[in-house]
Write a structure and sequence with these properties.
By secondary structure, the protein is α+β, with helices and mostly antiparallel strands. The chain has three domains: about 1-55, no CATH class; about 60-140, no CATH class; about 140-355, no CATH class. The protein has helices at about 1-10, 10-20, 25-30, 35-40, 45-55, 80-90, 145-150, 300-305, 315, 360-375, and strands spanning about 60-65, 70-75, 100-105, 110-115, 120-125, 135, 155-160, 170-175, 180-190, 195, 200, 205, 215-220, 220-225, 230-235, 240-245, 260-265, 270-275, 280-285, 290-300, 320-325, 330-335, 340-345, 350-355. Helix 3 runs antiparallel to helix 4. It holds the Pfam family Beta-prop_AT5G49610-like.
C-alpha cells in the first residue's frame, strides 16, 4: 500500500490533478501545508487559474429586504461544513437603516444605508465575509447638469464591473431621461477616485421609459437596462454606442420584478420572465455576423416545482411571482411568491424555502405586545390565537 501511495503522490502530474479536484479553496490551503513540494504545486499560478475555473464562487444565501424589516441575510439550508464555517465568521448585520441592495457579487455588497440621526442616506460598500476590512461610503460622482436641463429625470446606480483583470471595481451608471429620450454616463471608481467617465449620445427610445425593479446589469463589456415594456437598452461600455433589443414574443415588463437579467458565458446575457405561475428562461447571444438572437433554454411550471411549498391562495388569489435574483448563466433563481422566498436550482430542480417574510415581523410584534402588557395589563393571548 505504501508503494502504491508513493507511486501516485510522488508523480507531480497526478498530484496536480488531485489538487485540482479538491472541493474548496480551504482544502487547497491545507494541502499546501503538507510539504514544500505540495506548496509549490498548490501555489502555482497556472494551477490556481484552473482551480478557479473548475470551482466558481459558491452561493451562500440571499439578502431579503422589506418595508417591514431591515436588510437581512438568509443562508441556504444544509450548507457543507466548509461554507457554514465561512458564514459563521462573516458579519451580515448592516444596521437598522440598511435598505436596498444595488449589487452583490464575489463577497461584496453595495447597500443604501439611512443613518438613524436623520442625515441623508448613503450607498455603502460592505465585505461581509471579511468584516475586518470595514466599510466604505461611495460618494456620488460629479455629473454635468446640461443634459438634465433637457431631459428632466436623473438617477445614479452603483454596480460591480469586472474589468477582466481579476479585480472587481465599482461603476456608477448615471441616467438622465425623459419619456422617449435617454443619456447615459458610466464612471469607474478605482482607489476611491472616480475616473473621467464615458457618455453616450442622446438616445431616442422606441417606447416609453418603464423601469423594472431589477434594473441594470454590467456584463461582458455591455450595460443592459430593463427600461421599456418590450425592449432592453444595451450600451457598449467602451464605445458607448447603444441599441434597443426587442424582447421575445410574449415577454414584456408587466410589473416590477417580473423580469431579471444575469451574465452569460462568453457574450450576451440570460433573462428570466415570470407570468402567473410559469417562468421562462432565455439566453441572448451574438452570432459571427454580430446579429443578436434569443434562445429559449427552459420553461418551468412553478406550481408543480414548488408543490410542497404551495398553498391554495396561489391559485385562488392569482399569486404574483417576483424574481428576487437570477444567478449567472441562469444556474439558479430566487423567487418571491406571496410571503415566501424560494430558491430553485435550475439544473437539478432542487427547491429550498429561504424564508417566510411574516416571521421577520414577529420580533417587532412581540416587542409591541410586551409594551402593551406593561401599560395595560393585557396578555399575548389577547392578541394572538394559538395558531398564530
Amino acid at each position: 500500500m505504501a508503494a502504491v501511495i508513493s507511486a501516485v503522490l510522488g508523480n507531480d502530474d497526478i498530484l496536480r490533478e488531485i489538487l485540482l479536484r479538491l472541493d474548496f479553496p480551504t482544502c487547497l490551503v491545507r494541502a499546501a501545508a503538507v510539504s514544500t513540494r505540495w506548496l509549490r504545486h498548490a501555489s502555482d499560478p497556472a494551477l490556481l487559474r484552473r482551480f478557479a475555473r473548475l470551482h466558481p464562487p459558491r452561493l451562500l444565501g440571499c439578502f431579503i429586504h422589506s418595508s417591514d424589516f431591515p436588510l437581512r441575510f438568509v443562508p441556504l439550508p444544509q450548507q457543507p461544513p466548509e461554507l457554514a464555517a465561512v458564514i459563521r465568521r462573516g458579519r451580515f448585520d448592516f444596521g437598522r437603516g440598511a435598505g436596498n441592495v444595488s449589487d452583490c457579487r464575489n463577497g461584496r455588497i453595495i447597500v443604501f444605508v439611512m443613518p438613524e440621526n436623520g442625515m441623508p442616506g448613503e450607498d455603502t460598500l460592505f465585505c461581509p465575509l471579511l468584516p475586518g476590512r470595514g466599510t466604505a461610503v461611495i460618494q456620488n460622482p460629479q455629473i454635468s447638469a446640461q443634459p438634465c436641463a433637457i431631459l428632466g429625470y436623473y438617477s445614479t446606480e452603483f454596480l460591480f464591473h469586472d474589468g477582466g483583470g481579476g479585480g472587481m471595481s465599482v461603476s456608477a451608471v448615471t441616467v438622465m431621461r425623459s419619456e422617449r429620450q435617454a443619456w447615459v454616463r458610466i464612471q469607474d471608481l478605482q482607489a476611491g477616485v472616480w475616473g473621467e467617465g464615458r457618455s453616450s449620445d442622446m438616445i431616442q427610445l422606441p417606447a416609453t421609459w418603464h423601469r423594472c425593479e431589477n434594473f441594470a446589469l454590467l456584463a461582458n463589456g455591455k450595460l443592459y437596462m430593463i427600461c421599456m415594456v418590450q425592449y432592453i437598452l444595451a450600451i457598449d461600455v467602451a464605445s458607448m454606442s447603444s441599441t434597443c433589443i426587442r424582447l421575445p414574443d410574449g415577454v414584456q415588463c408587466g410589473y416590477d420584478a417580473n423580469l431579471a437579467l444575469s451574465s452569460a458565458e462568453g457574450s450576451g446575457f440570460c433573462l428570466a420572465h415570470v407570468k402567473k405561475l410559469q417562468m421562462q428562461v432565455w439566453c441572448y447571444s451574438m452570432d459571427c455576423r454580430n446579429i443578436g438572437n434569443w434562445r429559449l433554454i427552459d420553461t418551468i411550471n412553478l406550481h408543480k416545482v414548488f408543490a410542497r411549498f404551495a398553498d391554495r391562495t396561489w391559485a385562488s388569489f392569482g399569486a404574483i411571482v417576483r424574481v428576487h435574483a437570477l444567478g449567472d448563466n441562469a444556474d439558479f433563481v430566487f423567487l418571491r411568491i406571496q410571503n415566501k422566498v424560494l430558491y430553485l436550482d435550475m439544473s437539478s430542480r432542487k427547491v429550498e424555502k429561504m424564508s417566510d417574510l411574516k416571521r421577520f415581523v414577529l420580533p417587532e410584534l412581540c416587542s409591541f405586545l410586551v409594551e402593551m402588557d406593561e401599560k395595560f395589563g393585557v396578555t399575548y393571548l389577547d392578541y394572538l390565537s394559538p395558531s398564530q
